[in-house]
């Protein structure tokens, strides 16, 4: 069964953080929440299109993962980490790996996040 993109403490902040002009400002995400989950990460503005340099993609994904986790932490919607012994650095690194795959979608990012973080409704 595939992960469901829905209005909850996982998907809604993913949508808001990636789309907000005050946060990650990924302008290619549609304004319609329901359809946004199908947006490919490779279509977002952080993803390099004019270069195939792996270092550039790694740097961009690192920056976006770090900023995303910082914004999530500031929103106060997660209450801890799923796995004991994991750190926010581990979360950032695992999200970075998802961000580097241009064929992944926002829903895939939300699924990875949900597996890593406990949210306040859990």
The portion of residues forming beta strands comes to: 5-15%
**What is the H/E order?**
HHHEHHE
Major sheet: arrangement of strands: 1-2
Q: How many strands, which pairing sense, and closed or not: the largest β-sheet? A: 2 strands, antiparallel
Principal-axis shape: globular
What's the count of strands? 2
Domain module count: 1
The share of residues in helices is 40-55%
Explain what this protein looks like in three dimensions.
The chain has 122 residues and is mainly alpha-helical. It has one domain (11-119). The protein has five helices and two strands, in the order αααβααβ. Strands 1-2 form a two-stranded antiparallel sheet. Helix 1 crosses helix 3 (54-75) and helix 3 crosses helix 4. The radius of gyration is 14 Å and the shape is globular. The protein starts with 10 loop residues before the first helix and ends with a strand. The model has no long low-confidence stretch (mean pLDDT 93).
Task: Write the topology of this structure.
Layout: H1 11-19, H2 33-36, H3 54-75, E1 78-81, H4 88-99, H5 106-116, E2 117-119
Antiparallel strand pairs: 1-2
